Amino acid sequence: MADLLLNNLKPRNGIDDKALGRGIGSGCGKTCSYGHKGGKARSGRGKVRWFEGGQMPIYRRLPKRGFVSRNDKSRVSCVNLVDLQRLCNANALVANQEVNIDVLKKAGCVRSSAWAVRLLAKGDLEVALNIVVGYATAAAIAAVEKAGGKVQIIS
Question: Is 78 helix (H, G, I), strand (E, B) or coil?
């Protein structure tokens, strides 16, 4: 370890050009450039990121009314392959039919408030269907193609 000599001293990590509170000769002594009194002169004087200098914050200025986000995942309905096979067995779907969200809503497989459908791979599909959905897992796509159908993903 090097000796503690004046020519070996290095500034502390993160120290600025002016070391605050290091005597009157530093130019930043006494109040350390924090001024007199007030919240900005106190210890622990941080402010939250959304502080707007005392003006009415935006989260208080805006009206508190709801909205429907397009990214709301609760409005994405999940449909399994076993559900589609059940609809085929009940003659609600036929082979080579295009299956989209409107067809699934009409069949009662998807709730009416849903705006997208996610296709999942639970169960087996034995009928070739042309499925148009917003999301689909890789296993579900492989199972549909194995049955002779195809999956089209729309955004």
Answer: strand
Work out the burial of residue 72: count CB atoms within 10 Å of its CB; fewer than 13 is exposed, 13-18 middle, 19 or more buried. Answer: exposed
Residues 130 and 60 in one domain: no
Tens-digit pLDDT profile for residues 62-114: 988 887 777 777 789 999 999 999 999 999 999 999 999 999 999 999 998 88
Residues 61, 80, single domain; the answer is no
Residue 11 one-letter amino acid: P
Q: Which helix (H) or strand (E) holds 81?
A: helix 81-89
Tell whether 13 is covered by a domain.
no
> Considering its fold, how many domains does the chain have in total?
2
Residue with the bigger pLDDT between 74 and 11: it is 74
CA 148 to chain centroid: 35
Can you give the residue range of the structural domain that contains 23? 18-66
> Is the pTM here over 0.70, yes or no?
no
76 closest CA partner among 102, 113, 40: 113
* Domain stops at, among 46, 66, 86: 66
